[in-house]
Amino acid sequence: QVQLVESGGRLVQAGGSLRLSCAGSGATFSNYIMGWFRRPPEKAREFVAAIDWDGTYTTHAVSVEGRFAISRDNTKNTLYLQMDNLKPEDTAVYYCAARNGLYFRNRASYRREDEYIDWGQGTQVTVFS
Protein backbone atom coordinates (compact mmCIF):
# COMPACT_ATOMS: atom_id res chain seq x y z
CA GLN A 1 0.00 0.00 0.00
CA VAL A 2 1.31 3.43 -0.93
CA GLN A 3 0.29 6.63 0.83
CA LEU A 4 -0.50 9.53 -1.49
CA VAL A 5 -0.64 13.26 -0.79
CA GLU A 6 -1.70 15.75 -3.44
CA SER A 7 -0.72 19.41 -3.51
CA GLY A 8 -0.74 22.41 -5.81
CA GLY A 9 -4.44 23.09 -6.14
CA ARG A 10 -5.61 26.70 -5.86
CA LEU A 11 -7.80 29.43 -7.36
CA VAL A 12 -6.67 30.39 -10.87
CA GLN A 13 -8.01 32.52 -13.69
CA ALA A 14 -9.16 30.89 -16.93
CA GLY A 15 -6.28 30.53 -19.36
CA GLY A 16 -3.79 30.09 -16.57
CA SER A 17 -1.64 27.13 -15.59
CA LEU A 18 -1.12 24.93 -12.56
CA ARG A 19 1.05 21.97 -11.73
CA LEU A 20 -0.33 19.43 -9.31
CA SER A 21 1.95 17.09 -7.43
CA CYS A 22 1.27 13.77 -5.73
CA ALA A 23 3.89 12.54 -3.29
CA GLY A 24 4.04 8.81 -2.60
CA SER A 25 5.45 7.11 0.48
CA GLY A 26 5.45 3.79 2.25
CA ALA A 27 6.16 1.67 -0.81
CA THR A 28 8.36 1.52 -3.89
CA PHE A 29 6.80 4.23 -6.05
CA SER A 30 8.08 2.80 -9.32
CA ASN A 31 6.08 -0.39 -8.68
CA TYR A 32 2.83 1.47 -9.24
CA ILE A 33 0.67 2.53 -12.14
CA MET A 34 -0.54 6.04 -11.38
CA GLY A 35 -3.56 8.06 -12.37
CA TRP A 36 -5.27 11.40 -11.90
CA PHE A 37 -9.02 11.64 -11.47
CA ARG A 38 -11.26 14.59 -10.64
CA ARG A 39 -14.66 15.23 -9.13
CA PRO A 40 -16.39 18.36 -10.48
CA PRO A 41 -19.03 20.00 -8.25
CA GLU A 42 -22.13 17.82 -7.95
CA LYS A 43 -20.79 15.31 -10.46
CA ALA A 44 -19.24 11.88 -10.35
CA ARG A 45 -15.50 11.36 -10.24
CA GLU A 46 -13.96 11.09 -13.71
CA PHE A 47 -10.72 10.00 -15.32
CA VAL A 48 -8.16 12.67 -16.21
CA ALA A 49 -4.84 10.96 -17.02
CA ALA A 50 -2.75 7.90 -16.26
CA ILE A 51 0.83 6.72 -16.61
CA ASP A 52 2.63 3.40 -16.43
CA TRP A 53 5.48 2.63 -14.06
CA ASP A 54 8.26 4.38 -15.98
CA GLY A 55 6.36 6.96 -17.97
CA THR A 56 6.64 5.10 -21.27
CA TYR A 57 2.88 5.06 -21.70
CA THR A 58 0.50 7.90 -20.88
CA THR A 59 -3.13 8.49 -21.67
CA HIS A 60 -5.40 11.52 -21.17
CA ALA A 61 -9.11 12.15 -21.23
CA VAL A 62 -10.35 13.75 -24.43
CA SER A 63 -11.51 16.81 -22.47
CA VAL A 64 -7.95 17.59 -21.36
CA GLU A 65 -5.94 16.27 -24.30
CA GLY A 66 -3.44 18.88 -25.47
CA ARG A 67 -3.88 20.99 -22.32
CA PHE A 68 -2.87 18.63 -19.48
CA ALA A 69 0.19 16.39 -19.25
CA ILE A 70 0.85 13.65 -16.73
CA SER A 71 4.41 12.77 -15.77
CA ARG A 72 6.32 11.15 -12.92
CA ASP A 73 9.71 11.27 -11.31
CA ASN A 74 10.39 7.96 -9.61
CA THR A 75 13.59 9.29 -8.04
CA LYS A 76 11.42 11.77 -6.14
CA ASN A 77 8.44 9.43 -5.62
CA THR A 78 6.24 12.07 -7.20
CA LEU A 79 3.50 12.19 -9.81
CA TYR A 80 2.69 15.42 -11.63
CA LEU A 81 -0.14 16.91 -13.63
CA GLN A 82 0.76 19.97 -15.66
CA MET A 83 -2.43 21.85 -16.49
CA ASP A 84 -2.35 24.62 -19.09
CA ASN A 85 -5.06 26.77 -20.66
CA LEU A 86 -7.37 26.04 -17.76
CA LYS A 87 -11.11 26.42 -18.21
CA PRO A 88 -13.89 26.94 -15.66
CA GLU A 89 -15.11 23.41 -16.41
CA ASP A 90 -11.79 22.09 -15.03
CA THR A 91 -12.94 23.15 -11.56
CA ALA A 92 -12.89 20.03 -9.40
CA VAL A 93 -11.21 18.18 -6.59
CA TYR A 94 -8.26 16.37 -8.15
CA TYR A 95 -7.19 12.98 -6.82
CA CYS A 96 -4.17 10.86 -7.54
CA ALA A 97 -4.54 7.10 -7.46
CA ALA A 98 -2.23 4.08 -7.55
CA ARG A 99 -2.38 0.45 -8.53
CA ASN A 100 0.40 -1.97 -7.76
CA GLY A 101 1.90 -3.15 -11.05
CA LEU A 102 3.99 -1.94 -13.96
CA TYR A 103 1.29 -1.54 -16.58
CA PHE A 104 -2.19 -2.72 -17.55
CA ARG A 105 -2.33 -5.24 -20.37
CA ASN A 106 -5.75 -3.89 -21.29
CA ARG A 107 -5.25 -0.19 -21.90
CA ALA A 108 -8.88 0.53 -21.12
CA SER A 109 -8.05 -0.30 -17.51
CA TYR A 110 -5.98 2.87 -17.13
CA ARG A 111 -9.22 4.88 -17.30
CA ARG A 112 -11.21 2.80 -14.85
CA GLU A 113 -11.57 4.16 -11.36
CA ASP A 114 -12.16 0.70 -9.92
CA GLU A 115 -8.76 -0.52 -11.13
CA TYR A 116 -6.96 1.74 -8.63
CA ILE A 117 -6.49 0.72 -5.03
CA ASP A 118 -4.80 3.59 -3.19
CA TRP A 119 -6.09 7.15 -3.27
CA GLY A 120 -5.00 10.54 -1.99
CA GLN A 121 -7.25 12.96 -0.15
CA GLY A 122 -7.57 15.35 -3.09
CA THR A 123 -6.65 18.94 -3.86
CA GLN A 124 -9.10 21.64 -4.92
CA VAL A 125 -8.66 23.41 -8.25
CA THR A 126 -11.00 26.33 -8.95
CA VAL A 127 -10.90 28.12 -12.30
CA PHE A 128 -12.74 31.44 -12.63
CA SER A 129 -13.49 33.41 -15.78
Counted by DSSP, the helix tally is 0
Proportion of helical residues? under 10%
Whole-angstrom Rg = 14 Å
Average of per-residue pLDDT values: 98
Derived structural class: mainly beta
Return the string of H and E elements.
EEEEEEEEEEE
List segments where confidence is low: pLDDT < 50 over at least 5 consecutive residues. Answer: none
What's the multimeric state?
Answer: single chain
Count of beta strands: 11
Distance between the termini: 39 Å
What's the main sheet like? 7 strands, mixed
How much strand?
A: over 45%
The shape, in one word, is globular
Structure described in brief:
With 129 residues, this protein is an all-beta fold. It contains no helices and eleven strands.
Account of the 3D structure:
There is one protein chain. With 129 residues, the chain is mainly β. A hairpin with a 6-residue loop joins β4 and β5 (46-51). The strands form two sheets. Strands 2, 4, 5, 6, 9, 10 and 11 form a seven-stranded mixed β-sheet that branches. Strands 1-3-8-7 form a four-stranded antiparallel β-sheet, with no helix packed on it. 0% of the residues lie in helices and 48% in strands.
